[in-house]
């Protein structure tokens, strides 16, 4: 008998379930909201069910049917949820499944755990494809899948049945070569701006504009960046910083102009990491947060002499609306209308977002 391995992430330990986890499983999985968005979790979650489920996991692993991990928080060992691979075909494919207890929602744990399991699937198990599905009425799960780099592969209408209701199912998948291309960018951690990172943020900005003659002083150019809380956060905007390990590699925010319109500003990616997906992750997270806060239109200006940047925004659905100047720099103006389907946190972030 080969034991289920233990996987480590920055904040989590993914390990084999133990029988003494049963009470916590019953408490967390017994929440009707958890059962409502998963196909296999019953409600009510009766005594003995958790023990039976846990006891079956090692035999399933021994028979190469699948693997299930307890998602636990490193800080205190608390059980956060469960994640695993089912329907495994050796050397070929498996389905990713997960649930996170309601007290631990919106902390990035699901994506962080999923990234570790994808890495295990492709590197340790040698799988070539991992797929996943969610009820159409549960877009939060789709946001996780997109953050992992999975592609939406279709919708199966009334494909599943939950509590005597037919459910549409959204299908996602990722191939090993796609995962390998995106693995670096998926390790970026996003946090809301903190004053402690002002100096490295300014250094990142100065590196990005090196070579431009702005026609204004550095103090004028950086006025909003030395007052992020006032310019962005206190006006119902947003400003995010992206880290790989402990290095600040990305930044960006939006400034609210009216109830439904905001300006995307200060998108910066470290020069040696451009073209690796970090900009896409940052942009998609900002779009999602903007949409959740009621923004329906994002606009921006970017330097005309940067064709790759212009192409980046066009690729992500931004339409050119005019020309302008930022100091002495000629800029191209873009705009994009946000909608729910286009803002399902497609990064994928793996980002881990706070």
The top level CATH class name of the largest domain: Alpha Beta
Instruction: Name the poorly predicted regions.
Output: 345-354
Figure out the total of helices. Answer: 11
Give the H and E element order.
EEHHHEEEHEHEEHEHHHEEEHEHEEE
What's the count of strands? 16
What does the model show?
The chain is of the alpha+beta class and 354 residues long. The protein folds into 2 domains: 7-183, Gcn5-related N-acetyltransferase (GNAT) (Aminopeptidase, 3-Layer(aba) Sandwich), CATH 3.40.630.30; 187-353, Gcn5-related N-acetyltransferase (GNAT) (Aminopeptidase, 3-Layer(aba) Sandwich), CATH 3.40.630.30. It has helices at 22-29, 32-36, 49-62, 109-124, 139-147, 176-182, 198-208, 218-221, 228-231, 278-292, 307-315; strands at residues 7-8, 12-15, 67-73, 79-89, 93-100, 129-135, 151-162, 165-175, 189-192, 238-244, 247-256, 261-269, 297-303, 319-326, 329-337, 352-353.
Concise description?
The chain is α+β, with helices and mostly antiparallel strands and 354 residues long. It has eleven helices and 16 strands. Strands 1-2-3-4-5-6-8-7 form an eight-stranded mixed beta sheet, with helices on both faces.
